[in-house]
TrEMBL record:
The keyword Disulfide bond does not apply. The active site is at 467 (tele-phosphohistidine intermediate), 843 (proton donor). SUPFAM superfamilies: Glutathione synthetase ATP-binding domain-like (SSF56059), Phosphoenolpyruvate/pyruvate domain (SSF51621), Phosphohistidine domain (SSF52009). InterPro entries: ATP_grasp_subdomain_1, PEP-util_enz_mobile_dom, PEP_util_AS, PEP_util_C, PEP_util_CS, Phosphohistidine_dom_sf, PPDK_AMP/ATP-bd, Pyruvate_phosphate_dikinase. Belongs to the PEP-utilizing enzyme family. It is an enzyme of class 2 (transferase). One of its GO terms (molecular function) is ATP binding. This is Pyruvate, phosphate dikinase. Its EC number is 2.7.9.1. Keywords: ATP-binding, Kinase, Magnesium, Metal-binding, Nucleotide-binding, Pyruvate, Transferase. The keyword Cell division does not apply. Mg(2+) binds at residues 757, 781. Coiled coil: none annotated.
Length: 883
């Protein structure tokens, strides 16, 4: 097996830009070199080597040593420099590169190949002694941090002291002689902390760095990132070794990052940042505030320092032409790293750029219109889960706001929450259900868990491509970065903005679309659903086969669902219609009733309310199917709790509090989710389902009469385990329907069906389908009962199951296709055998999860039903599943 692939200088080992083999970075370096773009020569050690390295217990096969030597020889040949040569040394960078980019997760070493002797050679050939010694001290610092894993604080402290002793403010004031002294100090620090001198052999340096990149694949922060993004541990990372180019060789040198389109808005305009006389990490780390790439962006921001377009017009023009070539070649928006060394442009990286949902949508629609991609590809390009960002409220432009300061609009969306100054606290408070805003000077990969837990992120330092910005956009968290006037005091636990002091715990609002930071909470408005969103949804609807319905039980939810494109209601949970404070007393009265007569009295109070509710829903959903599920309350959710509630119910039912309390304790269940709920309630108290059926048919006739458009009620019986239960319940529904129809002298079409949410029901689906006219898979209960894990308590331990790889994802979020999925597939098959045209849908939470929707498409269900805000996600996911 070949483990090393070379690129650049006209050499191509046939890696064919394969991301799985070369990792994302390596594949695209290979790809750029192959189409003739200026890429410094180098080689990639494959991800297969990483996997083998771990399988073999951290050793390399002999063959790979020879291949790496050939790789170095290749770079030497193209550059004319020699690795470790004293007169004209070759320096290389060593970087990681997984299949999918993991921003900030993996380590990089620059300037590798410098030692006490080659530094002199570099000074000679560059004619810049200061540059050479600055590079050497950077290398020692980075190598000690990343490869030797020594405490980097010691190095920073030494530098601070050096500057202080000399009365300097900036690193740039340090002279060649100053750096030389500091290098000696750095080496002493290494020897003290590591008990060995800093490695002088350049080959030892190289293998140390390669080992560190492979090692970083199993670092804690990489593992966290993989877990959050469902990236398998077996993928491994590649290692890229490449000739160094220098952006810090004076005023004609620069380094920058750019996007071929705006990653926040999707606007078709180059977007980027650069720094003159700087090395790559300076831009990303957010230590110096970068300058704009284009004149237009600089002017829009009212910034002074010249843009690259103005400062280096020729190189900028060359860069712009590379942008065009790359977009056409990769047919997607690119995120690029480049360096200019003494006027010569070098491309260091390109990859599909991370973008906000808004930008993803606009770029996909624009590119399809530009003819760069097809409509289907545009549909495939947008991550359905990311649409979530667009479907949620933004700040109300009319709401008053107390603006504290303005930073960069790094990731859109509005968020309010309590100020929290560190990631661990953010995570802890979020677990308790608090909305928090993580406020940091700048974020680092160690903050990932806190960023994930926070509603939004605010940083004092860093540009649009800083760690905070990139990660926040990827996660869909609103983020304001580089709010320069923000000062954080980690001891007093306060943040100070222009003389105003806010304490940790105070509420702030950030607007990631404008960069504004506001005191207190600001009101929000509903999102705009026309434009690009509407266009993409139209294209999605053209290719989708699955119908999409909504889980909704209020007229408001139904209206939202219709606006989002729902094609019916897939689940109206009637017990939720009773949560209303005004009604709950009557429901409690019904539940606690001593006998049928008392129960009927309570039910009579509920009938008109139910009928009116159904009539409203039928009106909103005119002409569309509405699945109404008869009562399915775990009883404990409705029992009175405090003294006051008992008194209230006692008064309404005209019985004593003591009687009620006795009755409540009789009803108490040890295991309510497996207790007296679902159709078991209808079996014991048929009058409840009778009342509900009556409300449904009376409402349906009313709406038919008033609007001329008859609704299509689908009456659904919950928690059925046996065919007999369904037979009994359907008989009640049919009898009441016949009664109502004859009373009113009119009819409507309706169906009676069942939920399949118990394993027995799935197994006996063939029999159940003799009575059931449709099945709706209640995958919440079906998951709970198939795996035997309580849906209410699983949160406490399921993360461990996901961490240990027992489940790839939380089975209550994404369907356990392997187990629960098999039951669904089997039930669908058996149901269809009995009743060929049986209607099949899914209405558990999984109905809004893209991976689960793909499964529903595969087994040919008729529809999925999701909560209203997830309807567009389901439409897009259903389209992608059909492609
Ligand atoms: C289900 O069990 O999947 C379902 C939709 O019903 P509920 O969540 O109301 O139990
Ligand atoms: Mg259920």
């Amino acid at each position: 097996t070949r483990y090393v692939y070379r690129f650049g200088g006209g050499v191509d080992d046939g890696g064919k830009g394969d991301k799985n083999l070369l990792g994302g970075k390596g594949a695209n370096l290979d790809g750029m070199a192959a189409i003739g773009l200026p890429v410094p020569p180098g080689f990639t050690i494959t991800t297969e080597m990483c996997t083998r390295y771990y399988n073999d217990g951290g050793v390399y096969p002999e063959s790979v040593k020879a291949e790496v030597a050939q790789g170095i020889a290749h770079i030497e040949q193209v550059t004319g420099k020699t690795f470790g040569n004293i007169a004209d040394p070759l320096l290389v960078s060593v970087r990681s590169g997984a299949r999918i980019s993991m921003p900030g997760m993996m380590d990089t070493v620059l300037n590798l190949g410098l030692n006490d002797q080659t530094v002199e050679g570099l000074a000679q050939t560059s004619g810049d002694e200061r540059f050479a010694w600055d590079s050497y001290r950077r290398f020692i610092q980075m190598y000690s941090d990343v490869v030797l894993e020594l405490d980097h604080g010691a190095f920073e402290e030494a530098l601070d002291i050096a500057k202080e002793d000399r009365g300097y403010d900036l690193d740039t004031e340090m002279t060649a002689a100053d750096w030389k002294v500091l290098v000696a100090e750095y080496k002493a620090i290494v020897e003290k902390l590591w008990n060995k001198p800093f490695p002088q052999d350049v080959h030892d340096q190289l293998w140390g760095a390669i080992g560190a990149v492979f090692g970083s694949w199993q670092s804690d922060r990489a593992k966290v990132y993989r877990r959050l993004n469902s990236i398998p541990g077996e993928w491994g990372t590649a290692v890229n070794v490449q000739a160094m180019v220098f952006g810090n060789m004076g005023e004609t040198s620069a380094t920058g990052v750019a996007f071929t389109r705006d990653p926040a808005t999707g606007e078709n305009a180059y977007y980027g940042e650069y720094l003159i006389n700087a090395q790559g990490e300076d831009v990303v780390a957010g230590i110096r505030t970068p300058q704009y790439l284009t004149k237009a962006a600089r002017e829009r921001a009212g910034a002074k320092p010249l843009s690259m377009e103005e400062a280096m017009p020729e190189t900028y023009a060359e860069l712009a032409s590379v942008f065009e070539i790359l977009e056409k070649h990769y047919r997607d928006m690119q995120d690029i790293e480049f360096t200019v060394q003494q006027g010569k442009l070098w491309m260091l990286q390109t990859r599909s750029g991370k973008r906000t949902a808004k930008a993803a949508l606009k770029i996909a629609v624009d590119m399809a219109r530009e003819g760069l991609i097809s409509e289907e590809e545009a549909v495939a390009r947008v991550d359905p889960a990311a649409l979530d960002q667009l479907l949620h409220p933004t700040l109300d432009p009319k709401a008053p706001r107390d603006v504290l300061t303005k930073g960069l609009p790094a990731s859109p969306g509005a968020a309010s929450g309590a100020i929290v100054l560190d990631a661990d606290t953010a995570e802890k408070l979020a677990e308790q259900g608090k909305a928090v805003i993580l406020v940091r000077v700048e974020t680092s990969p160690e903050d990932i868990h806190g960023m994930h837990a926070a509603r939004g992120i605010l940083t004092a330092r860093g540009g649009m491509t800083s760690h905070a910005a990139v990660v926040a956009r990827g996660m869909g968290r609103p983020c304001v970065s580089g709010a320069g006037s923000l000062q954080i005091d980690n001891v007093a636990r306060t943040m100070r903005i222009d003389g105003r002091v806010l304490k940790e715990g105070d509420t702030v609002t950030i607007d990631g679309a404008t960069g504004e930071v506001m005191a207190g909470e600001v009101a929000t408005v509903q999102p705009e659903l026309a434009g690009d969103f509407g266009t993409l949804m139209e294209w999605a609807d053209k290719v989708r086969r699955l119908k999409v319905r909504a889980n909704a039980e209020t007229p408001l939810d139904c209206r939202t669902a219709r606006e989002f494109g729902a094609e019916g209601v897939g689940l109206c949970r009637t017990e939720h219609m009773f949560f209303d404070a005004a009604r709950i007393t009557a429901v409690r009265e019904m539940i606690l009733a001593e006998g049928e007569a008392e129960r009927r009295t309570a039910l009579a109070k509920l009938l008109p309310e139910q009928r009116d509710d159904f009539a409203e829903i039928f009106t909103v959903m005119a002409g569309l199917p509405v699945t109404i599920r008869l009562l399915d309350p775990p009883l404990h959710e409705f029992l009175p709790h405090g003294e006051g509630e008992f008194e209230e119910v006692a008064r309404a039912a005209n019985v004593s509090v003591d009687t009620l309390k006795r009755r409540a304790s009789e009803l108490h269940e040890v295991n309510p989710m497996l207790g007296h709920r679902g159709c078991r309630l209808g079996v014991t108290y048929p009058e409840i389902y009778e009342m509900q059926a009556r409300a449904i048919f009376e409402a349906a006739l009313l709406v038919k009469e008033n609007t001329g458009e008859a609704p299509i009620p689908e009456v659904m019986i919950p928690l059925v385990a046996t065919a007999k239960e369904l037979d009994l319940m359907k008989a009640i529904v049919d009898r009441v329907a016949a009664e109502v129809f004859s009373e009113r002298g009119a009819t409507v079409d309706y169906l009676v069906g069942t939920m399949i949410e118990l394993p027995r029901a799935a197994l006996k689906a063939g029999e159940i389908a003799q009575t059931g006219e449709f099945f709706s898979f209640g995958t919440n209960d079906l998951t709970q009962t198939t795996i035997g894990i309580s849906r209410d308590d699983a949160g406490k331990f399921l993360t461990h199951y996901v961490d240990k790889g027992i489940f790839a994802r939380d089975p209550f979020v994404s369907l356990d296709v392997d187990g629960v999925g098999e039951l669904i597939e089997l039930a669908a098959e058996r149901g269809r055998k009995t009743r060929a045209d049986i209607k099949l849908g899914i209405c558990g939470e999984h109905g809004g999860d893209p991976a689960s929707i793909a499964f529903c498409e595969k087994i040919g269900l008729d529809y999925v039903s999701a909560s209203p805000y997830r309807v567009p996600i389901a439409r897009l996911a259903a389209a992608q599943a059909a492609l």
